[in-house]
Amino acid sequence: MLPIILTDIAKKKIVDMGKSIMTFRVWGVNPPGHLAIEVFFEDMRFPGIEYEKFQNENLITYIPTNHYEYINGVTVDFSGWNEENESNYNPDMTLNHKGFECIPHKIETSEIKLSWLEVNGIIKKIFSMNYESPFHLQRQAAAINYLRFKKDEEDESFQESLFSFTELEQAIKSGFY
């Protein structure tokens, strides 16, 4: 049994597509305070992060072990994807969702902590989607430097740090200076 809920539209699309893989990650908190969870429609396991694997019929899901309790029960919907979407898709600018998305998840988020790998991945994605090179690298560096200053730790300790959504949000704001 899968720890996620698929809408009827999402179930139908997965049946139509055949064998499918979804990888999840905690993305942030939306303005009403609901947890935003990103779903990739491919195996997007990030090195250094442990995942739990679930399989049901023709769907395999990967959920980060450290956020399983927060992702458990999320609803996945399908909003649409066609040939034009596929031809306009730029893998250098974003990761592939193929029209699948998680509905905002109403759970307590104040205790969620993100690892350095998770925070770094989110920062890279946000700035690479909004700026061309080399500007996105400068923005990333500003956000990362904010976190380094905030944590005031050496490189080895810093990469073992955990970050709150508030710290991530402040870092991203500092990158948009």
Give the count of structural domains: 2
In CATH's first tier, which class of the largest domain applies? Mainly Beta
Order of helices and strands: EHEEEEHEHEEHHHEH
Shape: globular
Return residue spans where pLDDT drops below 50 for at least 5 consecutive residues. Answer: none
Between the first and last Cα atoms, what is the distance in angstroms?
45 Å
Q: How do the strands of the widest beta sheet line up side by side?
A: 3-2-5-4
CATH architecture of the largest domain: Sandwich
Helix/strand class: alpha/beta
Q: Can you summarize the main beta sheet?
A: 4 strands, mixed
Q: What would you report as the Rg, rounded to the nearest angstrom?
A: 17 Å
Proportion of beta-strand residues:
15-25%
Measured as a percent range, the helix fraction is: 25-40%
Using DSSP, what is the number of strands?
A: 9
